Amino acid sequence: MALERTLSIIKPDGISRNLIGSVIERFERAGLRVVAARMRRLDRNEAERFYAVHRARPFFPSLVGYMTSGPILVQVLEGEDAVRKNRDLMGATDPARAAPGTIRREWGESIERNLVHGSDSPETAREEIGFFFGAIDVCDRTDS
Ligand code: ATP
Ligand code: MG
Predict the structure, then answer these.
(1) Structure confidence at residue 3 as a pLDDT band (50, 70, 90)
(2) Which of 38, 32, 37 is nearest to 3 (CA)?
(3) Is the CB of 112 under 6 A from ligand 1?
(4) Active site residue 54
(5) Is 67 within 8 Å of 80 (Cβ atoms)?
(6) Nearest residue CA, atom 1 of ligand 1?
(7) CA–CA separation, 49 vs 16, rounded Å?
(8) What is the pLDDT of residues 111-132, one digit of tens each?
(9) What global pTM score does this model have?
(10) How far apart are CA 99 and CA 77, in angstroms?
(11) 20 with 73: CB under 8 angstroms?
């Protein structure tokens, strides 16, 4: 299985509810390593560009409002099969439909306020990591 990197975001509801540690604990317990992290508050333009794929969806304006409503924690996670592993830990988009024990099932409040983002493929992961981080920001943790 391939060593991969993926982008994770703890969204504004996760930050305001002080759930950073609880979420990262899930990642670490599953064998994912944080290799970059930064707290940011997105402006409207950045949120629109990040979720550009959803521009035509009816929920887009609300999604942009939610993602700009407070700081977010952006992280690069590394590990075997990291993209899929992170998506499995997150659970389905709608917390009500997410499997028991997943992050969204545990803490998500609605299909919009679902606490975390994760890249959905290795290609998307590369693009999304490049959106937030330069090569110099990502640490090599192969030996640490
Ligand atoms: P993410 O991209 O944030 O990891 P996802 O891949 O599970 O989530 P997407 O379909 O890419 O789901 O939707 C992006 C985000 O838009 C969701 O995480 C959620 O915050 C919001 N969203 C998705 N569908 C809806 C909806 N029907 N109503 C309101 N908000 C939605
Ligand atoms: Mg998505």
Answers:
(1) very high
(2) 32
(3) yes
(4) no
(5) no
(6) 117
(7) 23
(8) 999 999 999 999 999 999 999 9
(9) 0.97
(10) 22
(11) yes
Average pLDDT over residues 38-60: 98
Tokens coding 88:
């499995």
The bound ligand whose nearest atom lies closest to the alpha carbon of 61 is: 1
| Gyration radius of the chain over CA positions | 14
- Ligand 2 center–CA 140 separation, angstroms: 26
CB 110 within 8 A of CB 66: no
- Whether the pLDDT of residue 52 is over 90: the answer is yes
pLDDT tens-digit map of 67-108: 999 999 999 999 999 999 999 999 999 999 999 999 999 999
Give 140's Cβ-side CA count (13 Å radius): 2
Counting from 1 in the atom list of ligand 1, the atom nearest the Cα of 53 is: 11
**What type of residue is 56?**
A
